[in-house]
Amino acid sequence: MEYPFIIKDDSDYFEITCRDLPALTAIAYCKEDIEKEAIEALQTTFMIYMSDREKIPLPSKKQDGEVVFSLDFRSSLKVALYNEALSQKVTKSEMAKRMGLTPKQVDRIWDVNHPTKFETIEQAFFVLNKKIVHKIISI
User: CB 3.0–4.6 Å: which of 41, 71, 94, 123 could bond 1 by disulfide?
Assistant: First the structure.
């Protein structure tokens, strides 16, 4: 997943926002930290959406003046998994029951900062009747 960001240079710092996620705001004090701060803010914003049981908006196409930063593959899968569970109206408790886990373990599966094994994420999609399909493309 690649989200477009708006970076404003306010002389003392860089303000980072994302058109797709209005709640996302971050600050970087040097150019080298912009991507790191943007990704951390993205992950934090996802956790806010999840705690509010709201669908996480998917990224839109980059517009002029925006820069794009990529979310890591595991986090991208977790966002897709969370959104799928929400669209199917599968609660955390129901997901836990289907997977033979506790709701706390499902929290960790959805947590974009937790290093969940890919096999566990794959199992979670399976209980939602979904399958992960890998595709490698040229860049």
Answer: 71
User: How large is the average pLDDT for residues 57-86?
Assistant: 95
Residue 116: CB atoms within 10 A of its CB come to 19
pLDDT score recorded for residue 134: 83
d(CA 22, CA 69) in angstroms, rounded, equals 16
Alpha-carbon distance of 51 to 126, in angstroms, equals 23
Can you say whether residue 65 is alpha, beta or left, with left for phi > 0 and alpha for psi between -120 and 50 degrees?
A: left
Q: Which of 70, 88, 116 is where one domain is finished?
A: 70
What range does the domain containing 16 cover? 2-70
pLDDT higher than threshold 90 for residue 66: yes
| Edge-to-edge strand list for the sheet holding 2-9 | 25-28, 14-17, 2-9, 66-70
The Cα–Cα gap between 29 and 20 comes to 23
Q: What is the pTM of this model?
A: 0.90
